[in-house]
Design brief:
Blueprint (H helix, E strand, L loop, with lengths): L4 E10 L2 E11 L4 E5 L6 H9 L4 E8 L2 E2 L5 H6 L2 E4 L11 H7 L9 H11 L1 H5 L10 H14 L4 E5 L7 H14 L5 E5 L12 E6 L2 E6 L1 H5 L2 H7 L4
Parallel strand pairs: 3-8, 3-9, 6-7, 7-8
Antiparallel strand pairs: 1-2, 1-4, 4-5, 9-10
Length: 237
């Protein structure tokens, strides 16, 4: 089966400081991969490089076999790549539904109502607040809108950077309940998370990034059975 997202020997960084050192990663269609590891070791840089916000110095990036490592950002979006960055980056004066519709600008008008219903099914709270301005929402609700706007794009590959960052435990549970449903959809997902325990019951594969390299990759069960990973990255839990 052709990988939905394939990254091979990717090298990238900022100015003269390398951050990614030959990263390779494949994600199959219909699956969710979790990217875990210490802060400051390249997880966000990997997502930015895949989406074109940070230029790749060398290596290959492919969406269903299509090479995009030299493509412009909008060309990568057109190829089916969606990147939900840290934070929410919403239009505060616009309503929840208007923000969601902004994510569907490449889709036909006939597809938008169905896409909206999909988002509201995953995040029912947004359906209750569809007419409210984004500036009036809580942090967790804003995060849901950010993820929902990414879903509205209808992309083939969706990357989400730290969906639970700075949120209360109850809101985190609601967001991950939504992601649990998304992982069964016919898309490929790459989710960055500082706390890997939140993804063990959701992700099909967990990849450990350390010092700009993918140091380990396996299933959630393999993570639970690896004493070295548990002790080094999860504090023994």
């Amino acid at each position: 089966m052709m990988a939905a997202l394939s990254v091979s020997d990717l090298v990238a960084g900022y100015h003269n400081r390398p951050v990614l050192h030959g990263v390779s990663l494949d994600i199959e269609p219909g699956t969710m991969a979790a990217l875990i590891g210490p802060n400051g070791h390249g997880k966000t840089t990997l997502l930015k490089t895949v989406s074109g916000l940070v230029p790749a110095r060398s290596g290959a990036i492919r969406i269903f076999g299509q090479a995009i490592e030299t493509a412009m950002v909008h060309e990568r979006v057109a190829a089916g790549l969606v990147h939900v960055p840290q934070g929410d980056q919403l239009f505060g004066e616009m309503s929840v539904e208007e923000n969601l519709r902004m994510g569907a600008y490449l889709r036909s008008a006939s597809e938008v109502p169905g896409a909206l219903e999909e988002v509201y099914a995953f995040f029912p709270r947004l359906a209750e607040r569809r007419g409210q301005s984004a500036s009036s929402l809580s942090g967790g609700e804003r995060r849901m809108v950010g993820i929902g706007r990414g879903l509205m794009a209808g992309g083939k590959v969706m990357m989400i950077d730290e969906p639970s960052l700075g949120l209360a435990p109850l809101i985190i549970e609601q967001i991950y309940e939504g992601l649990r449903g998304l992982s069964r959809a016919d898309r490929a997902f790459l989710v960055v998370e500082e706390n890997p325990s939140r993804l063990i019951g959701i992700a099909d594969r967990i990849c450990l990034m350390d010092a700009g390299r993918i140091e380990w990759s396996g299933t959630a069960a393999e993570v639970a059975g690896s004493r070295d990973i548990l002790e080094t990255y999860l504090g023994g839990h």
